[in-house]
Amino acid sequence: MKLRSLIFLATTLLVGSAAAATIPHAATTTATLTIPVGTVVGSVINNVEYYRGIPYAQSPTGPLRLKPPVTLSTIGTVDATGVGPACPQVANVDSSPLFFEVLQNPSVVEALFFGSALGDVTEDCLTISVMRPQDTPSDAKLPVLFWMFGGGFQLGSAQPYNGSVLIPRAVAQGKPFILVSINYRIGGFGFLGGKEVLADGAANLGLLDQRMALEWVADNIAAFGGDPDAVTIWGESAGAMSVFDQLALYDGDNTYKGRPLFRGAIMNSGSTTPTEPVDGAKAQEIFDAVAEAANCSSVPSSEKLECLRQLDFETYANATTNVPSFMGYNALSLSYVPRPDGRVLTASPDILAKTGKYAAVPMIVGIQENEVSEDSD
Fold this sequence. Notes:
The structure is a single chain. The chain is of the alpha/beta class. It has helices at 3-13, 98-102, 106-112, 166-172, 187-190, 195-200, 205-220, 238-248, 281-293, 304-310, 313-320, 349-354, and strands at residues 29-35, 38-45, 48-55, 76-79, 127-133, 142-148, 178-182, 226-236, 255-256, 259-260, 264-268, 363-366. Strands 1, 2, 3, 4, 5, 6, 7, 8, 11 and 12 form a ten-stranded mixed sheet that branches. The longest helix has 16 residues, at 205-220.
């Protein structure tokens, strides 16, 4: 990968989303809102209310590491005025040390994270952020745009996507809406494969996180003035792949409490992704590499996942980077990716698309210009 491709990645590819922008510096006030699961205190800047980093599931740490998300029934009072966390990232680059040189440039770093902080990286990261026009009444029934970030299922966070550009423009056009962005587990925390993972029922955890966040929206968005029956899911790159996966989960069953979780879908530069089963050769190779790096390879197969769960955060996080990076020469062969498990994702997404096993909602599918330029040299 050449230096110019790395710079292009940082300055052109990633800043292309209008959903991401620096929150303007201005006098800030707070807003307090009671929702079904608790109370959230947000910030108000330039006529936009920001409620960022609200937990939507129990902390996926300790015995809940590498387990499906668990519902959080109450949150008490949450200070949602900050940036919120980011889930653990897979930041290794196996193709060129030039990437690290590029990251020494402050302007490139700002571009990578859209001038808005990624958030502190922590395993306790399953949070949701809600942005709305200031003083939206609870009965407004505004449409909801539900955003899932991209990053090769190895990088990314909800926090840079703050709606500070889109929401004011929508209000000016008389088409106000509510923007929701979510964190979901990525890398070896959210998309670890292998026969051990399949046997434990721990596959596709990142997709299950996304589904639980959608259920949280169904239960809580009306308190923000949103319409739970007017949710559109939207993502870019890996986020767009996730959008189709949400269409295809459970063979297209997108209902919750008898109602659809979303009514439309937008996929930017991603859709169906052919993949082998979660216990296939590629997934097993990745699992074995992680287990070896974590010194868990010598225990019986049935005990390896438990060994990984008992590791301290730093040790396990480092072990998950012992795999080829999506920013390397073999970028299109993703180490961590949703894979068919026979239950949540019953088959490869391309097969589910061909057989009509997906939620038949209106869709917009497109590409990001120069999306893969960083992989072309």
